[in-house]
Amino acid sequence: MADLKNEFSWSFSQARDFSACPRKYYWQRYGSWGGWEEIAPKKVRDAYRLKQMKNRYALVGLAIDSAVKEALAKIKAGEEVTFEEAYKTARNHLVKAWYEHKSKMWEKNPKKYTCIKDLYYSEFLMDDEESRQAWGSFIKERLTVCLENFFGMILPKIRPYLERGELVPIGQGDFESDSFTIGGLKIFAAPDSVIKTEDTFLIIDWKTGKPQQYYDYQVRVYGIWAQMKHDVPADMIELALAYLPDGTWKNVPYDEDIAREVFDFIRENVQDMSDKLKGRDIALNEPLNIKEFEQTDRLETCAQCNFMELCQRQFALASKEQF
Ligand code: SF4
Fold first, then answer.
1. Which positions ≥6 away from 291 have C-beta within 8 Å?
2. Is the pTM of this model over 0.85?
């Protein structure tokens, strides 16, 4: 097999990392590259392992995403799905993650087996009954509220689209199906759910946390994805953020002018990222020295970051605000 090359690409999550902490962006993108190889230096392997960790918010998001997608597919096929069935699907994901963490199999294969950040950094303690229950209660409450709101408030909005349209298969988690190219730049983007009808291409992003203004940008990148990857005209595209913790639905405007603004944002962002490359050469994609990737001084950002161990900033957890 040919050697994998660390090609330059852009994604919304990379842009978010870059803006939150350039050092985090470094670990995600360069410092962990090749860490799947047993012969890689320890620091690279550590970075690769830490990069795969998931906190409770991410785990709930993934579990809900899976339960919602399964429910939509069944409803489209003419079956009805109950809250209890969806809850069971989501819960199974969380239980699996818990046991994978406990087994420590992630030490050998961090990509395949889940390591839970909250437990790894002792934010919650697996061996302490009270702490274990607190983690479980958080998960249970979040799953319950999100799925109740999905069935009670969001699904009724989606049903008319489902009845007259089709679910569009989304990327399979591989590089090619989750990306598209503009002017030679590879962009990674894969929306959560898409329903195509005769006159609309509805893109929905499921959110299981607090509303953030930058999510508008994220779904607008999916608008460009629809135009480039599926050849959909801008005036057919509808973008929506479905906030499951309170059941709100936000339509995000999109048209050709907005698409241009988003693309300008991507271009400027790529220029900033290329400032951190040798010769500013994105074809070469070789990072400057790690010191050129500044560490944030916002400890609340560190407290949410998987790479605290590498930056020796575990103390940030002590100053953590609730988020
Ligand atoms: S621990 Fe803090 S400084 Fe280090 S990469 Fe994460 S956010 Fe940046």
1. none
2. yes
